[in-house]
């Protein structure tokens, strides 16, 4: 049986209060909380207002989250910034206690575009710096959405510029496959601290996760619930939230199946990014640090893998550097 202290030591974490996520140390020495609030609105209901993001960021900080994930393309950086400002004004936290991640969109991949793009994000967020800035996809697009031929190695030079100018503490990537990560590391001065990719029970990404972890690149897991939560696709693969394997674990640990899925990711050394705009579910999604799954239970959930993506940008299949040809 693994002890909590052993698990945290294994992944370089320090122990924290029940509703506050511990931190991992990134390869540049900065520390990152192991649960982030997702603010991407791809899964928001059609009736939802964008201001719900401001409210959910505030509720999240109140519930103990110290890591917020946003992106230029979510068009919610102003609301994220307002939620943060409200929390700071009400003395829930200081800026230094928060870890804010944002991302560069595909049409700003030329080196000279990167720093201005980050400055624009910072202006919207109302912040002087972010903690982590990611290349959202290795794919470059023109402003009209047609493919562009900018190499992500050039983009990375712009990311290094942004870091050097103190606009971001750390830099990383998102949606890079293993070959792209290797090529980036072999041809740059600064190693990415993070690769943010989709990981959940139907897309377990074991090879990519191990590869990144061996290179000291932490993996953030987006769409962490996979198809366990309601998705529009009626043909979505199992498991759903009522799956007997997940329900069995939920009963054993007196948690919800959503908490089991998040804990499964944490027990693999990943940093899940659950999105919710519901106060109770926001709190539930960080109430994860008074239990852990056994190695066998993690393996059992790995067996659901079907290499099926929630986020599958098929329109970009013919674009240079499309990443999802390999897992
Ligand atoms: N880097 C990238 O390319 C990329 C791509 C996609 C996403 N992301 C990031 O990852 C975040 C999460 O991904 P996602 O939004 O696709 O998926 P997700 O977090 O796996 O799922 C969100 C859905 O789950 C529901 N939910 C949340 N907590 C729940 C709980 N405890 N029980 C039952 N249902 C629950 C939410 O509804 P309610 O809001 O009603 O609770 C929402 O419908 C995004 O917000 C974004 O920040 C990054």
List keywords for this structure.
single chain, 327 residues, alpha/beta, TIM Barrel, two-stranded antiparallel ribbon, 11 helices, 13% strand, globular, disordered N terminus, binds NADP nicotinamide-adenine-dinucleotide phosphate
Q: Can you walk me through this structure?
A:
Keywords: Oxidoreductase, Signal. This is Aldo-keto reductase AKR2E4-like. The active site is at 74 (proton donor). This protein is an alpha/beta fold and 327 residues long. It has a single domain, classed as NADP-dependent oxidoreductase domain (TIM Barrel). The chain is 35% helix and 13% strand. The chain has eleven helices and ten strands. The chain has helices spanning 4-10, 52-63, 77-89, 111-125, 152-164, 178-186, 206-214, 244-253, 257-267, 279-284, 295-302; strands at 23-25, 31-33, 37-38, 67-69, 99-104, 130-135, 168-174, 194-198, 218-222, 271-272. The strands form two sheets. It has an eight-stranded parallel beta sheet. The protein is globular. The relative contact order is 0.15. The model is unreliable at 1-18 (pLDDT under 50). It binds NADP nicotinamide-adenine-dinucleotide phosphate (NAP). The site of NADP nicotinamide-adenine-dinucleotide phosphate has 28 residues, from helix 10.
């Amino acid at each position: 049986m693994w002890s909590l202290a052993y698990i945290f030591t294994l992944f370089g974490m320090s122990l924290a209060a029940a509703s506050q996520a511990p931190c991992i140390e990134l390869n540049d020495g900065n520390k990152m909380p192991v649960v982030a609030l997702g603010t991407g609105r791809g899964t928001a209901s059609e009736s939802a207002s964008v201001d719900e993001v401001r409210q959910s960021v505030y509720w999240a900080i109140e519930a103990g989250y110290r890591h917020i994930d946003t992106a230029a393309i979510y068009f919610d950086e102003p609301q994220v910034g307002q939620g943060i400002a409200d929390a700071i004004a009400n003395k829930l936290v200081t800026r230094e206690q928060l870890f804010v991640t944002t991302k560069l969109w595909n049409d700003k991949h030329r080196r000279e575009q990167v720093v201005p793009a980050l400055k624009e994000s910072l202006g919207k967020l109302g912040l002087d710096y972010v903690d982590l800035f990611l290349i959202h996809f290795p794919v470059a697009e023109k402003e009209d959405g047609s493919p562009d031929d900018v190499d992500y190695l050039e983009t990375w030079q712009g990311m290094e510029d942004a870091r050097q100018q103190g606009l971001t503490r750390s830099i990383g990537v998102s949606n890079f496959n293993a070959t792209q990560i290797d090529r980036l590391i072999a041809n740059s001065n600064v190693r990415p601290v993070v690769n943010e990719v989709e990981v959940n029970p139907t897309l377990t990404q074991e090879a990519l996760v191990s590869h990144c972890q061996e290179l000291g690149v932490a993996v953030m897991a987006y769409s962490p619930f996979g198809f366990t939560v309601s998705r529009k696709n009626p043909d979505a693969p199992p498991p759903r939230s009522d799956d007997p394997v997940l329900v069995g674990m939920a009963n054993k640990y007196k948690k919800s199946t959503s908490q089991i899925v998040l804990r499964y990711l944490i027990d693999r050394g990943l940093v899940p990014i659950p999105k919710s705009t519901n106060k109770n579910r926001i709190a539930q999604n960080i109430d994860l640090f008074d239990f852990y799954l056994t190695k066998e239970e993690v393996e059992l959930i790995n067996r659901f893998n079907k290499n099926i993506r929630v986020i599958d940008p098929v329109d970009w299949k013919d674009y240079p550097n499309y990443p999802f040809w390999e897992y």
